[in-house]
Amino acid sequence: MTLPPLYALRAFEVAARLGSFSQAAEVLNVTPSAISRHVRTLEEWFECKLFERHGPKVIITPAGKSLASQLTKSFQSLENACSHFGRKNRQLRLKAPSTLAISWLLDVLSHFRDKFSVPAIEIVSVWMDVDNVDFVREPYDCAILLGQGNFGADTECLPLFEELLIPVCSPALLSEAQHDLSACELIHPTSDRRDWRRWIDRTGDYKSLNINKGKVFDTLEQGNQAAISRHGISVGDLLLSLKAIESELLVLPFKQAVVTGDSYYLVWPKGCAKEKYIDLLYQWLKSSVPGPLPDDVARLN
């Protein structure tokens, strides 16, 4: 069977995935009119409409959705096949949340590179409100994500270490926090203030604490930095805060660390061509997990 032009299939797949001819044009470095021509080529080839056009706005048709889903998988298979060859076969592109990268991962990967020349690890650190990865649409070989081990049916994962939440503050605010936490400025490292809520609920302490007040940030790392700068009392991930605690930039006003039920996992797509490198990376990461816990800290399940 003769196939339609590959460049037309690629243009259509990107346009369908992004829902925009203009965005597809930017990705492929062509003009929007070129994307439109490629789509029309396919519509003539298949004798059906792939997009409904309403001026500059386009809406994919059911037939277009069906074709796009198959093409996305096919292009991913092609990319995986090509990754067996050349320089990129000796690289791992790793996605990781920003707090984890800054507090732990960058140092660990630096030591990894000192010992192993292959694979070359390229880390992309991003903010994620909910840790996730789409290996079909995102250009990563693996990721470190926080969750409960359910990252999709097409993925494999192995645990690294669990999340433990505990209040942290500057040494200058230690006495104030221990004497009257309700009088202190709270720092929330998540916009929904869930970390203070989880610590209070699990410990059973400070039920009357007003968590609707205080400063709100996007990440645990931002919360820690605000706490180091004496802007209030934050909730930190104990294991990822150990370096700052050992350096006496942060202290623990309370000694109960709450197990959230989430852990950090190394995640990769099933059938990945680079599994031997991923296994090597996992063994290194697992041998380098932060710890141990301070002796006087109680772990609350």
Descriptive tags:
single chain, 301 residues, alpha/beta, 7-stranded mixed β-sheet, two-stranded antiparallel ribbon, 10 helices, 11 strands, 41% helix, 22% strand
What's this entry about, in short?
By secondary structure, the protein is an alpha/beta fold. The chain has 10 helices and 11 strands.
Description:
α2 packs across α3. The strands form three sheets. Strands 3, 4, 5, 6, 9, 10 and 11 form a seven-stranded mixed sheet that branches. The protein has a two-stranded antiparallel ribbon with strand order 1-2. Helices cover 41% and strands 22% of the residues. The longest helix is centred in the first third of the chain and has 21 residues. The chain has 301 residues and is of the alpha/beta class. β10, α10 and β11 form a beta-alpha-beta unit.
Instruction: Describe the global form.
Output: elongated
Task: Give Rg in angstroms.
Answer: 24 Å
- Give the helix/strand class: alpha/beta
Uncertain regions spanning at least 5 consecutive residues: none
Order of helices and strands: HHHEEHEHEEEHEHEHEHEHE
Distance between the termini: 60 Å
Number of strands: 11
Provide a count of the helices. 10
Largest beta-sheet characterization? 7 strands, mixed
Overall pLDDT score: 91
Helix content: 40-55%
Portion of residues in beta strands equals 15-25%
Give the helices and strands, then pairings:
Blueprint: H1 6-18, H2 21-28, H3 32-46, E1 51-54, E2 57-60, H4 62-82, E3 91-97, H5 98-115, E4 120-126, E5 142-147, E6 155-168, H6 174-179, E7 187-188, H7 194-203, E8 215-216, H8 220-228, E9 234-237, H9 238-246, E10 256-269, H10 275-287, E11 298-300
Parallel strand pairs: 3-4, 3-5, 7-8, 10-11
Antiparallel strand pairs: 1-2, 5-10, 6-9, 6-10
Helix pairs in contact: 1-2, 1-3, 1-4, 2-3
